[in-house]
Design a protein that fits this description.
- This protein is globular.
- Helix 2 crosses helix 5 and helix 3 (94-105) packs parallel to helix 4 (127-135).
- It has helices at 37-53, 70-79, 94-105, 127-135, 188-194, 233-242; strands at residues 2-6, 9-11, 19-20, 25-26, 33-35, 58-64, 83-87, 112-116, 139-149, 152-159, 162-169, 172-176, 199-202.
- The chain has 247 residues and is an alpha/beta fold.
- The chain has one domain (2-219): 3-Layer(aba) Sandwich (Rossmann fold), CATH 3.40.50.
- 26% of the residues lie in helices and 28% in strands.
- A hairpin with a 4-residue loop joins strand 3 (19-20) and strand 4 (25-26).
Length: 247
């Protein structure tokens, strides 16, 4: 079994977000960067669990980005990856990221490619689908459970009103969400081992730019909270009728 897990670098959820150049460029100075939680907690950890069940499994990691992504990919190696690839270009949109990963993966013979369901910065949930299409592989999105059965995989995902179970032949691309695995913390042995695990820098393939940023915009500031005394329900009713807005 050969597994590839896609890793993204994202700002910590507590980071203060700002933009410059007429709101067309993200200000990265002072931002704490982390592994995208959906990639780490669900895709990567589930891959590690599968490797623990079958030690012959080869687990590779891939990220698209500059040298500043290496601490992120080293942490992923510390959790349990065997080796990693860094495609040496700034990540663009979901199509560009998927195209770079597909160019790397197409001749590697991966049985299973895992991504998080989305990144917490752009939230577009598109990379996995693009990647599956480019590699001409089946794709299951938003999976909550994954088990391997020889040459096939059994997957669960939530649907409206219930849960769907399917069996899909390998090779396969899967995006993972909550329920797939439980988050782990790297131990000291893993951290030390990660320092010497292979991290290969790969030249990017040439791509046409399909999208550009017109403008970023921060969400509106939260309005103040109005407290209504418990002995004044009439005022609460008035506020609900006159000032409350449906979202």
């Amino acid at each position: 079994m050969k597994i590839l897990v896609c890793i993204s670098k994202t700002p910590d959820t507590t980071a203060k977000i700002a933009f410059t150049e007429n709101n067309t460029k993200f200000v990265s100075d002072g931002v704490q960067w982390i592994i995208n939680p959906y990639d780490e907690w669900y895709a990567l950890v589930r891959a590690i669990e599968l490797k623990e069940k079958d030690p012959s499994t080869v687990l590779h990691l891939v990220t698209v980005g500059g040298a500043d992504t290496e601490p992120i990919i080293r942490k992923a190696l510390a959790l349990g990856g065997d080796e990693a690839y860094r495609i040496n270009t700034e990540p663009g949109d979901a199509y560009a990221v998927a195209a770079q990963i597909a160019a790397l993966a197409k001749d590697q013979g991966y049985d299973l490619i895992l991504t998080g369901k989305e990144t917490i910065d752009f939230n577009n949930s598109a990379t996995g689908g693009f990647l599956a299409e480019m590699l001409d592989l089946p794709y299951v999105s938003l999976a909550t459970k994954l088990d391997l059965n020889g040459t096939s995989a059994t997957l669960n995902r939530e649907i409206e009103g219930g849960e769907e179970t399917m069996e899909v032949a390998l090779p396969l691309v899967v995006s993972c969400q909550k329920g797939m695995a439980e988050a782990r913390i790297p131990n000291m042995r893993g951290i030390m081992a990660a320092r010497t695990k292979p991290l290969k820098v790969v030249d990017p393939v040439a791509l046409d730019t399909l999208t550009s940023v017109v403008q970023y915009e921060l969400p509106p500031a939260k309005a103040g909270v109005k407290l209504v005394p418990a002995d004044n329900p009439a005022e609460l009713v008035r506020l609900l009728h006159e000032e409350a807005k449906m979202i």
